[in-house]
Amino acid sequence: MQNLSGRVEPLRQIISVEQIQKRVKEIARQISDDYRGQTIHALALLENGFMFMADLVRALEVPVICQFIKPRYRKQQGDGPSEVLEILFSHEMDIRGQHVLVVEGLVHSGVTGEFLMSNLRGRGAASVKLATLLDRQSARRVALQPDYFGFLVDDVFVVGYGLGSPEQTGRNLPFLAAAAPPPAMT
Predict the structure, then answer these.
(1) Which fold has domain 16-72+85-156?
(2) Sign of CA dihedral 71, 98, 152, 159
(3) Which site in 9, 62, 100, 102 is 20 to 30 Å from 89, CA atoms measured?
(4) pLDDT for the residue numbered 149
(5) Is residue 70 very low, low, confident or very high in pLDDT (cuts 50, 70, 90)?
């Protein structure tokens, strides 16, 4: 895998294509059973959730409306360093009375997922659940548990199947691999 400096970083496959596809189908079956007779509003977090969302919604057996959201962090002006979370929707949506499924590629700290789920509940969603391909519980900063998850992962940096960082290649890999973390941005 190549980073911005052009250096090639070694990769170690940790989850195969076959394991991913099998688990995505199992999650889709569980979600379909839970939402039988309902329509799901699936909201994928970009960028890490796009491949998982694509495979997941193709495997669902219930009607799905797909939308995408992009969390963005910005530094807040004032005393001391702090970050403010902004969530950008592809378009403003009315989810009052709707069943919402937030789809993430990786739940890390849980802060973004918790913030988003609280916001959606406050907007009147009938239900809000979280599906993630990867769950890194060791990094959790809030008490958030995904309703559906594919695999537990440890503290390695994971690339492939849509996951990665803007500074590195590897999002296009069909499997998941452990890699060196991207260099710190200055």
Answers:
(1) Rossmann fold (3.40.50)
(2) negative
(3) 62
(4) 96
(5) confident
